[in-house]
Amino acid sequence: MMSGETGRELLAGVELGGTKCICILGSGPHDVRAQRAITTTDPETTLWNIERALSEMFEMHGPPSRLGIASFGPVDLDVLSPRYGFITSTPKPGWRDTNVAARLRDAFGIPVSFDTDVNAAALAEGRWGATQALGDYAYVTVGTGIGVGLVVNGATVKGFGHPEAGHIRVARRAGDVWPGHCPFHSDCVEGLASGSALAARAGKPASEIAPDDPLWTDVAHTLAQLCATLALTTAPRRILFGGGVMNAQAHLFGRIREAFRNSLAGYVDVPAVMDRLDDYIRPAGLGDRAGPLGALALARSVRPD
Ligand code: ZN
Questions:
Q1: What spacing in Å lies between the alpha carbon of 183 and ligand 1's midpoint?
Q2: How far is the CA of 79 from the centre of ligand 1 (A)?
Q3: Which residue from 23, 31, 98 is spatially nearest to 67, judged by alpha carbons?
Q4: Which of 1, 8, 238, 286 has the smallest set of CB atoms within 10 Å of its CB?
Q5: Could you give the C-alpha distances from 12 to 19, 30, 57, in angstroms and in order?
Q6: How far is the CA of 169 from the centre of ligand 1 (A)?
Q7: Residue 69 phi/psi, 5° resolution?
Q8: What's the pTM?
């Protein structure tokens, strides 16, 4: 474990995404020795290409001590489950019940840590981004879908599985009657405020919806309700937002903070939160790098057997 304390231990990571995968070798954002993108196709071809890419990187730069895998989901994170480390009920064709973690562990013979892409990105933000030195925080990505990485006591939350806070149903803003777009819940947070929901509602990509379009009031309300729910459950010390919708519509931050304050209605009387909302609800720090760096942060989190 000593080498892990130096911060220069050589680690490997794989960000497993729906359209592409990124293999990375290094110790952190300032020490990336190699990085390679692979198109995601069927599981067998994709995992074989990942193994080959990692092998070549290890040959060139030296073998890593640990591997982190940050995967699209849903995934099985229950260490007591026979399907631990599997991608499970994904609608992505061919990927249902794919064994990922054990396969890569056996291929390279090094300890592996496996988690969701959004949990991994949250860990990276804590290690190198906008939540450094905080043990309790949330990372919300608002893109095609809405994912929430939740870190409590310095670790991502896992029980029977991973939280799916993007699918919480929250109180609708009075007068907001759009039915929602989630195939499971219609008007959950993802069904109301994700990029795909906004495209369905507005008939154009979220990035092309004007900032003064009235629908943003509803969207900000929904995301603020999510923040209030998080604040009232795990009491995060900061809530980060990233993802394509937030990056394209920065005006949302101010609106979310205001609606968050209104939603809590004075109940959370904590100056570190309520007097500093600009800092409490704020953009993530690592941008597009959060994915691959998340895989490295996961590798760092591998517990010794
Ligand atoms: Zn839903």
A1: 7
A2: 26
A3: 23
A4: 1
A5: 20, 14, 9
A6: 8
A7: -120, 115
A8: 0.93
pLDDT tens-place string over residues 165-207: 999 999 999 999 999 999 999 999 999 999 999 999 999 999 9
Numbered ranges of CATH 3.30.420.40 in the chain: 11-118+289-300, 130-284
Does the pLDDT of residue 80 top 50, yes or no? yes
Task: Identify the CATH homologous superfamily for domain 11-118+289-300.
Answer: ATPase, nucleotide binding domain (3.30.420.40)
Give me the pLDDT at residue 158, please. 86
Beta bridge partners of 71: 16, 116
Dist. CA 176 → ligand 1 center (Å): 17
The CATH superfamily of 130-284 is: ATPase, nucleotide binding domain (3.30.420.40)
Ligand 1 centroid vs 26 CA: distance in angstroms?
36
- Ligand 1 centroid–CA 122 distance in Å is 21
Residue 112 DSSP SS3: strand
CA 95 to centroid of ligand 1, rounded, Å: 21
The alpha carbon of 8 and the centre of ligand 1 are apart by a number of angstroms equal to 40
Q: Is the dihedral of CA 96, 102, 104, 107 positive or negative?
A: negative
Alpha carbon of 100 to ligand 1 centroid (Å): 25
What does the pLDDT look like over 230-258, one tens digit per residue?
A: 999 999 999 999 999 999 999 999 999 99
